[in-house]
Amino acid sequence: MGEFEAHAVIDDESWAALCELRVGEPDAILAHAHQRRRRRQIAPGGRLVILAADHPARMVLDVRGEDGQLGDRRGYLARIMRVLQGGEVDGVMGTPDIIEELTGLDLIASRQGGASMLDERVLIGCMNRGGLRGAAFEMDDRFTAYDAAGLAAMNLDGGKMMVRLDLQDARSLETLHACAQAVNGCLENGLYAFVEVFVVERAEDGYRTLRTPRALMQAVSAASALGDSSVRTWLKLPYCEGYEAVTAATSCPILMLGGAARDDQEAVLQEFATGMRAGPNVRGCLVGRNVLYPGEMDPALMARAVSHVVHDDMDAVSALERSAGEA
Q1: Read out DSSP for 29-93?
Q2: In this model, does residue 327 exceed pLDDT 80?
Q3: Domain range for residue 115?
């Protein structure tokens, strides 16, 4: 398969129109957001595949090596749009700039007579991005993006927050407290809270996620209790061997994260397929780079394969074959 062509998805005219929209009609983006048709129920079939698009705000710009692919905003948005236009995912989670850019591009397309790629999709705003990767203050993960009022003002369906628990760093408590307040804010606005949580420990090259059943059970137990209520809380967790013990630590719905992009797409899909069978509360995936940058594979095909794993209970090989046959 040939190299992905961003210009085939966002042409020069559309890119220029988005830039002009920011200057000449910034309020039109908010107005279009309020015209978006939202789902009555966040997961009508009980399962979700959400595209994660919040990495650049934490200064995560590389997919493989130091390629800077996530720093090419037009290319990044084009991959997201490619997936959305194909209808393979239930929604998108992103920071304010990305949500606004997608809304702006959707407005431009609608003015040209095109159908909306955001109607009936689950849109989730990312809330805390302050813990920049590699910074001395990485564990000081302040809420520098959406707050609950901002989520509601943009007509979004929920907010995503992350808490990395370094049990040797007091700043994790501050993030935990801020997440509890954010859960309450989402509740007050009738929104869902998606809490990404895991235990980390300091290593020479940064922070290392502890992907053991016990560490994830500890993280789940803390995250499930955040805020005044957990009735609208979904958890975002990494997969690990022995996932059954992790899922048994809560009744909250769980979405598996994808992590750093890997070259073996079948292995990614098989991990998701195994995780989906680990407990009745595993309800899908919230995945970014492994869908948007699947090597030489079309992002839309990878998204379709993930959807088959989650929504159709397929194994990795069957999902890939079905996805390729639908191309």
Answers
A1: HHHHHHHPPPPSSS-TTS-EEEEEE-SGGGT---SSTT--GGG-HHHHHHHHHHHHHHT-SSEEE
A2: no
A3: 6-325
